[in-house]
Every structure is written in C-alpha cells, then in structure tokens.
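User: Last request for today: this protein with adenosine-5'-triphosphate, please.
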Amino acid sequence: MPLQEIVVGRDEDDRRKYGKKGSIYFGKHLVGEGEEANLTNPVHLDVARPHVSLVCGKRGQGKSYTGAVVAEEFFLLPEEIRQNLSMLMIDTMGIWWSLKNPNEKQISLLKNWGLEPKSFDASVYVPEGFEEDYRKENIPFDETFSIQASELSTQDWSLAFDISLTEPLGVLLERVMRKLVNKENYGIDAIIDTILDDNRASEDVKQALENRFLSAKEWGIFSKEGLSIEDILSPGKVSVLDVSYFGHLSSGWSVRGLLVGLLSRRIYRKRVEARRQEEMSTIKGRKKIDVPMTWVAIDEAHQFLPAEGKTPASGPLTTLVKEGRQPGISVMFITQRPGAIHPDAISQSDLIVSHRLTARPDLEALRNIMQTYMTFDIQEYINNLPRKKGSAIVLDDNSERIYAMKVRPRMSWHAGGTPDAFEDEEDF
Ligand SMILES: Nc1ncnc2c1ncn2[C@@H]1O[C@H](COP(=O)(O)OP(=O)(O)OP(=O)(O)O)[C@@H](O)[C@H]1O
Ligand SMILES: [Mg+2]
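Assistant: Here's the final one, the structure of the complex with adenosine-5'-triphosphate:
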C-alpha cells in the first residue's frame, strides 16, 4: 500500500499486515493552512477492529453527515468483510432514513470527488405505537420496534421516571418489581395491578406510581413480542432506529434512554455469547458467525451518557465503552457538546473526529485528552481547519497521529441539513 494512503484507527502492525483491507473510505487528507488547505490523499477508517470513537463539532458542521458516511461505506465493503459486521444507528433526529434516497443535492460536489448519488438499503425501525403517524407523514420505514416491559429493571424505571429509590414512590416501585421478579414477559398492566394490590403504601403513593406507568403506556414502545436483537445484529445489516418521535413527549429523553440502555445491554450479552462461540469454533476448526461484530452509532450522545447525572443508558453504555472491545463492539458517539458528555466517553475513545468547535467548555473537554503525539494545543489544530462543512481533525491513538481531513460527500441524501434557499454551491 502506498505510504500516503492513511488508515485511521489502525496501528502500524495492522497497517503493514493488512494495508487498507477492512477499512472504509472516509475522506481526504487536508494539507496546508486554513482556506488555503488542499485535499490530498485518501483517508480510510479501520472497521476491522473494535473502536470507541467520538465525533464532535458545533451545530451544522457535519457530525450526523459523517455518521451517515460511515454507514454508507458499510454497504460498500467487500461481502466477506461486510458479513462480519453490522451497524445500529440510534437516530435521535429522524434523519438517517434518507440513506435510502440518492443525494441529488450535491451532485457537482460528488462529481468532483469522482462519486455518484446512490441509495442504500438501510433497515429503518420506527416505534410500534407511532407506525400510523410515520405512514401519514410518508416517512419510509421497514419495521417497527417495541420492547417488553418485563425486560426493564427497578433501576431502569427509577431513572426513567426520575424517582429516587429512597422516596416512598421508589420504595413502592422496588417492592412491586420484587414481586414480579419470577414472572416472565409481563406487561405494564401487570405492573399496575401489582401496585394496586400493594397493602403497605398509602393510596396517594400508589396512585402517583400508577400514573407514571399509565403515562409509560403512551410511549408506544411496549408490547409482548419486543424487538429481536438477532435481527438487528444480522450479518451485514445497517439498522436505523428512529427514536426522534419521542421528542413529542415530555419524558422523551427518558424513553430514548431506556431504549438505548436496554439495547446496549442486549447487544453486549449477545456479543459476549457469540464471542465465546467464535472462539470455540476457531478451536474446533469451524467458522460460522451468526451475530457479527457490531458498530453502534449514537447521535446526540451527551443526552444518553451525560457528564452530570445518570440516564437509564449511562450504565450500559459505560459497559460498552469499557468492556466492548473484547466482544467486538464499536461505539461511535456523536455530540455537539463534548463538554457535556461523560468524560469516560472521551478518555476511552481511541479515535476522535472533531469538526469545528468554538465553545470553551467543549474545547476544554478535548484539551484534557492532550496526547503525546500532539505538538500543538487542540484549538490550534481546529482553528486551522478551512471553514468548509465536513472538515475535521482526527486524533488517532492507534497510529498516534493527528490528521486534518475532509469527510467525503454523501452519496445518499442528507435529510438533516440546514434548510436554506440557495442552490448547493459546495465544491470542495
Ligand atoms: N463532508 C461533507 N461534505 C459536504 N457537505 C457537508 C459535509 N458535512 C456536512 N455537510 C453539509 O453541512 C450540513 C450540516 O451537516 P450535519 O447535519 O451533519 O450537521 P451536524 O453537525 O450534525 O449539526 P447539528 O449539531 O445541528 O446536528 C449538511 O446538510 C451538508 O450540507
Ligand atoms: Mg446532527
């Protein structure tokens, strides 16, 4: 492989051994300063090994776009590699369904890059309870998702409802959950019945807790079947889980947190199990992968793993970040506010892609990861970026290098763009 071909996320040993095999086309290296910078060699991104990555940058700089570029590239991987991977995108803004439509808006830009508009067959999941609303709004989707109430723990509920386990509501919640512990696949109605049957709590407390569960019924995510994690993790599949609809609810972030927490736990469990089987089959000479390594991309990640406070997703995401490498789980946190995401998400990242960033607390959060391979302060690298959307610096712990780059244009349409009345004039 020519030395100029950069593969971020890959250490020198792997680079020598595999070249750019098992990597995706991510963009081009930017050489030079500010607006004078030129696009030079291709930059690839390793997807063969697990990574924790952080994509950050201020509003409208290209974070969600970058996430979608990674998803597009999954479809373009050679079949034998794609079959060993899957990707789950947690879509908080309801924008990634547009992977299904070709990018007709940036045609001249794509042409400059030698690319063409293209659609990709991502599997879009929407909440079961809101299926009709999606139909009415003509938003394309493939499947609906729901979860089983019985999969949630006392702690999940207490975090989702924001009740402390030491207050009377929490004490009742814990007692109710303990009574249900040996039951399988119960629904919200069974939880409510158990609350009403309780003979120790006062009527007020019982009613207050009942009301919480009645409102949870309106979230439109509970059913007896639940979601099959095996489906989401099928070899080669890119799933977009649209959780944007919960924005309508006052408890929108709690619901999303519950979902992300539950999914993360199940993915972790599945992959730990699969890893054991993979190891056994390697020993026995068989190689069949049912649940491949997976990438989980989460937009607005500071809402799920915040620096302050806890959400139902905090614990499970921390597990993925700290223990996901062995079972082959990659996480891509996307956030406008690195200063608001839990420091673990930053310190555990081996790959940071930072678009333009100006707010002091956010720069400060990145400054804390000052690596030995950085000659200058992070702000200097960022200030040096041209003011073109999609420009970013990449801090790569694997190769111990820092690069300025421009993420390649999307082949599929970007639904989350900043609305404007102009023709698209981007040509870089
Ligand atoms: N790599 C790129 N190449 C060309 N254009 C880009 C690129 N990245 C982003 N853009 C342009 O910038 C716009 C905004 O990008 P995007 O929606 O990803 O921003 P964001 O950082 O996610 O913003 P927000 O914080 O508001 O979610 C896109 O609609 C697109 O026009
Ligand atoms: Mg975005």
